[in-house]
Design goal:
CATH superfamily of the largest domain: Hsp33 domain
Strand content: 25-35%
Mean pLDDT: 92
Oligomer: single chain
Number of strands: 14
Structural class: alpha+beta
Radius of gyration: 21 Å
Helix content: 25-40%
Order of helices and strands: EEHHEEEHHEEHEEHHHEEEHHEEH
CATH class of the largest domain: Alpha Beta
Amino acid sequence: MENRVIPDDIVQPFQLENAVARGRLVRLGPAAQEILNAHEYPDPVASILAETLALAALVAGIFKFDGLFSLQAKGDGPVGIVVADLTSDGALRGFAQFRADEVGALGDKWRDGPVPHLLGGGYLSFTVDQGAEADRYQGIVELTGATLADCAHNYFHQSDQFDGVVKLTSGRGDDGVWRSGGLLVQKMPPEGMVLQSGDAADEDFEEAWRRAVVLMSSSRDDELLNAGLHPHDLLFRLFHEDGVRVFDPDGLEMRCRCSAERVENMLKSFPRAEIETLKIDDDVVVSCEFCGRDYTFSEKELNRVYDG
């Protein structure tokens, strides 16, 4: 038998043959690790950031967009903010801000409920930005539940446009490399029609949907994180009774959008006197929170930025 290449850093779209649900499977390996390499994240922070990356890749597929999808969790806990964004051409990045002493004091407690222990109270937001020619969409929900998946379900339940279930996981292997993965199944409209509130539901259709959710939930964390398991094989194992059709996968890569030009434009948005107060050893250093790259501006370069 011909050896198959097992893809990594992808989103694999699929649809059940019974037309009850469509879905997406995300697998992140090198891309997730490269994003985490930008900062020295302790394990609890690395774990929730890796899951945030997977959630962003899954949920972005719900929206048909040409531009930028952003997911942000902001709370009052030891991890103040976690951000992931994804462009329509597969450029993924993310970062987290945290208070190291408070994270360290948690020990392993965070595993019982990453959201309340790490993020605390706050909100989860989804934003789609397609540029100046299109309206900006934003959905916001409270951080309710023990996990990011619980928070996503809270958003789904509040949305009139979406009925779905998501599963997320992340972990560091014996080789020290972080991976994350997830599954999302979305209920399709019965016979192509959207049921309005109060309409009778087709019991056979609803039963098939409940079965799809149960089958998706039977996926194991080790399967979602297994770089040696082909996504097609996992989807077949889960949904072969109803039949599953796969489509071309979408590739993902860590690609930061920061640039010297963008940093210079940001500097010019502040008064020169204010920027002068940020000098370290006669230079102004601006660090990208996503990739960790430093942009250094000497006095001469600041003159060029402000006077050029």
